[in-house]
Specification:
Layout: H1 6-27, H2 33-55, H3 60-66, H4 82-106, H5 108-123, H6 128-149
Helix pairs in contact: 1-2, 4-5, 5-6
């Protein structure tokens, strides 16, 4: 992104998030109302944040409080070489792909537990006990809390369809 003007990057990010949000809303259009609560909340919050990001350079008190430079800062605040930054970005993308693949293969709830446990153990260097307790608490909140508040039509996991 060395050749792109910084204001163009902000608009490109806004367009990307707008596209993703509208895609999510269109996919959830046929869902029952309780299933649409989470996508509506996520997209609504995301759109508010994106609009604030775009108007901040043009509104004096917002510019002073939120962004003295007037633009979204996408720079890395370190002296890491470009190859190390690309490696870190690739690792983050790998975790995202792992999360999505896990949801498709073994389901949302099992993937939540597994990915949280793996991330806390290997990336955050947490002890096994802390990682297990945190993953279990999060799974419990998702399974009982999210499951009782909303009705999300999760797809049937591909691997579990064999049993």
């Amino acid at each position: 992104m060395n050749g792109l003007p910084r204001h163009l990057v902000s608009w490109m990010m806004f367009g990307l998030f707008l596209f993703m949000g509208l895609t999510l809303l269109m996919a959830a259009e046929t869902w029952p109302w309780r299933a649409r609560i989470v996508p509506l909340a996520i997209v609504g919050f995301g759109l508010v944040c994106a609009v604030v990001e775009l108007v901040t350079p043009h509104v004096g008190f917002l510019r002073q409080r939120l962004s003295p430079s007037g633009l979204m800062d996408l720079t890395v605040e370190s002296n890491l070489p470009a190859a190390a930054v690309r490696l870190q970005a690739g690792i983050a993308l790998g975790w995202l792909v792992l999360l999505i693949a896990g949801i498709l293969l073994i389901g949302f709830y099992m993937t939540t537990f597994t990915v949280v446990l793996a991330y806390l153990r290997w990336k955050a260097k947490a002890s096994w006990l802390r990682a297990l307790v945190t993953a279990t608490v999060l799974w419990t909140v998702f399974f009982f809390g999210l499951g009782s508040i909303t009705t999300v039509p999760w797809p049937d996991p591909l691997l579990l369809q064999w049993f």
